From TrEMBL:
Basic and acidic residues compositional bias, start-end: 19-36
Record-listed E.C. numbers: 3.1.4.-
GO biological process terms, semicolon-separated: intracellular signal transduction; receptor guanylyl cyclase signaling pathway
Annotated localization: Membrane
InterPro entries tied to this protein: A/G_cyclase, Cyclic_nucleotide_synthase, Nucleotide_cyclase, PDEase_catalytic_dom, PDEase_catalytic_dom_sf, PDEase_CS
Record family assignment: Belongs to the cyclic nucleotide phosphodiesterase family.
PDEase domain residues: 722-932
Keyword Aminoacyl-tRNA synthetase: no
Keyword annotations from UniProtKB, A to Z: Hydrolase, Lyase, Membrane, Metal-binding, Nucleotide-binding, Receptor, Transmembrane, Transmembrane helix
Designated name of the protein: Phosphodiesterase
Taxonomic lineage from the root: Eukaryota, Sar, Stramenopiles, Ochrophyta, Bacillariophyta
Amino acid sequence: MMKPNDDDDARSETTLSSVREESRDEKGEIEKKNQKENARVQKWRLAVTAMVLATAAAVTSITYILLDQAETKTFHTAYNQFSQTIGDAALQYHDGLRKSLEILSVTISTGASESADSWPTYHYPEFAPFAKQLLNLSRGEIFSSFNYVPKEERTGFEEWVSYNYQDWIAHDHMRVYGNLDRLDQNTSKFLGTISRSNPENKRERIPEVEKDHYYVRVQSQPPFSAYYPMFLWNMGVLEGADAIHHFKRGQYFVTPFTFLPMMDRNDHKSYHSKDQDGTDNPHSILWLPVHREPGNYSSDMVAGVDLIFAWDASMRFLLPDDVHGIKAVIRNDCDNVCTYRIDGPDALFEDLQDLHDPQYDEYRRDVTLVSYPEGAFEDDSGYHYNNCAYTMSIYPTKDFESMYKTNQPAVVATVVACTFVLVAICFYIYDWFVHDRQTKMVESAAHTNAIVTSLFPGECRDRMLDGGGDGKDGLSSFLSLKDASTSGDTSSKPLADLYLDTTVLYADICGFTAWSSVREPFQVFTLLETVYAGFDSRAKIRRVCKVESVGDCYVAVSGLPVPSRDHSTRMSRYANDIIQLFGAAVKNLETTLGPGTGELALRVGMHSGPVTAGVLRGDRARFQLFGPTVNQASRIEHAGQSGRILVSKQTADLIASTGKGHWLEAREAVDLKGIGTIKTFWVNVSRNKDDEGSTRDYETEASILSSEEMIIDDTARLISWNVETLINLLKVVVARRSATCPKRTPVDLRAAASEGLPLDEVCEIIHLPEPGEKTVTWQQPNDVVIDSAVVDQMREYVSCIAKLYHDNPFHCFDHASHVVMSVNKLLSRITTCDSNYGINSDPLTQLACAFSALIHDVDHNGVSNAVLVEEGTELAAKYMGRSVAEQNSLDLAYSLLEEPRFEELRQAMFVNQEEARRFRALVVNSVMATDIVDKDLKALRNGRWAKAFGEQAFTESPKDAVDRKATIVIEHIIQASDISHTMQHWHIYRKWNERLFEELYVAHINGRSQTNPATFWAKGEIGFFDFYIIPLAKKLQDCGVFGVSSGEFLSYAHANRAEWESKGEAIVEEYVAKFSAKYASCEV
């Protein structure tokens, strides 16, 4: 006969054998699959190689084409930009020439009209300097003026000129140069005739011809370099000078190219690029008449002006230094043509012919420089008189194109081709490694598959192992959604089914967002883990399928994966179970998670109908529900109420059909977002004989949850929570002592206090112990055991403190517990680095902070200190009208602690007089800090803050500096915790704001306060935020002890202020309406 232990060994061996067999089967399946795939892999290897080569050729070609097109586009863009610049500059230059000549013409005419001299014996005295200015502006080379002399006035004109010409020339030199250094005073030439260039560019003398009128050059800028008598009588035979009579009044004209040597060669070089000899550079002359009356072109012509200019002047200094190779071809209708090459700032004359490259004809840009309007002549002969119309044609060159079109496309294309070759080589190397590694992975993959199969129980797991029902690829292929998406293979279908008869439940924790905003992360997870564990356990009992939990929302479904007819009633019972479970759990957890936990409630919504359910593949694959039924269940839950079950009409009909119609309670129709108005029902599950057997386990559990500990009132739960909080802090104090080993001496609390008032004990600096005094490792606080007598006395002390609090709406034990919780949260956020100023390393300081928060409003009468002083109470007289409530709270709490019944508690809190003294100092400073109205205390705190954290230098020892910062930070922690609701979630702020308003309202209607809070509450809160709350939150951030969480309070303060600013007035109206009705029977 086999022994029991032998049976266990046999069963274990059988189980292990089964696992091994499954592992071998999985391994064999993988190996078999690999054999089938080897042929496919070989085919794909060849196909990939061909695709890589084809892709390499295509990508290389496309790369070359795209880069070449980009360079061509850049070349076109640059050429268009630079050619446009050249053309615009040429037009602007020639327009400037014409305007300069017009200005000179009008100036001479104006000067003559204002002079006593008359034409032709008129000489404009300011010609030289004025023309010099115009030359500088227009970039011309020579200005000249010539007088119109009728034949009959020739003799008088010659006498006039012979008498004055030397003075004129000398005068012009002095006006222009300031001296006569450039004037050859020893030379006096008589120019009876002049010469001109013939078509062969050779000089020929022009003989004097007898005519009815003459044009005699009188002035020039630059001035003549010698004493010329200026009798140029053959000037009249020049067609350029004589032709202006045949133009319409006010018209100008330009001559063909000319190469007249008008100035010194050295001077002329400065007008052209790269010291080109200006005499070889094409010039032209611009002619314009001078009329007797200024601006009146119909008056007689009495003189003329001309301007000699070079064609390259308009093309200089236009392009950047590194841009070169643009050609400009200038041609006129007088059969003249010349070519310039523009390189950076230089315009170089090349030849008197068109030298552009014909391959760039498509890029030609034409600019009309000089044109004449139709009917420009007075007669109808149409003879041009050597007046020429000019155009400029701009072309790029090979040099210019080479700046933008390089061999880069070919280089990049080559690199791309080489890259593909390298990729192909790497592919074959990688393929070799994969093939070598594949055999080693088979056994590991088999073991992995075996482990994964254990994660999905039941029907879903079996179908997943079968490849989702296809039976060809197994679990790994079913879950490899990524591979399927990239390959485009949709043959692997998801594991999903349609279930026609199901009931979906949504459960949400009401008030969770506001509750979690004032808790530490571990507290939030403690709550969720506790309640969700109970929900999961009950789901197994009720055969309900849990779908998921997202935050504070729990989703479940009944009627799948195994269909059932009673899915609606089963889910109703389950909903009732989890509501009661949740209520009991939060009451229990309030003693560990703090005040307000017991106020949380569960809201449940249910809807019945078809759903699509299955395994949603991907990372962390899970079972999911989809369909309108799921959406409507969520909407119904949002429309419900805390602690109740709301169901749709479909679910109600199913419940009624199972004989449970007495569970239903009709509710008014509700409007659901995205669905519309529907009829809903409340479900009140009642137990009867038919349910007795099915709920036996539940009743057992419910009886446990309904014990005396689960139904204690709110105050008792708050007392328990405060006791646990203080005991936990006391454990840390005891653990610290295990490292520091202080000497125990008798403790006298009365000796720790001064003989005066508590207000007189407020310290500038409270000296905390050095954090690194001992290097002995602390005992773990969780390992510390506090004597049961100490725990009992702590409970009794906290209970007495709770009784000392009045039943005020705001200044009550509930609010004191909220302040304790806020203090603990801030203390837990203090960093462990050196910037905590020793607060984090002294557990007694933390205990003193929590103790101060607990007692700071003991015996508060619901009115301010100012009211107590105004009423002349005994307390006001006792404490001399300052911080009355705060000093009274501290004295009462300490008097209670001094009673003999708390002897063991005192011994546990303090081992010597130094600890009692430091504890007392911390409590006094903290409680007095809650009086934010006393101006003297406020000034002292601001002064300490300025010394501790201000920019102004303050000389003190390093130890005093650290302790000063610690002292002021502790006071601000208490201050912030006292009004922490203003820097927490909006719902928390609304709750305590309403309570404080009610307290002040009650004081008003009872005649203790003359001011109705409704008159100032809306705007007063804004001022409270701006002048106290937000500055305080900024100080918490600036002190640097809270690390990355330092901005949380400031963020909530700004958010609440903005919310109150938009809703405050309406909220105050709600307060007034609510409390007016509540206290309508009270009389002032």
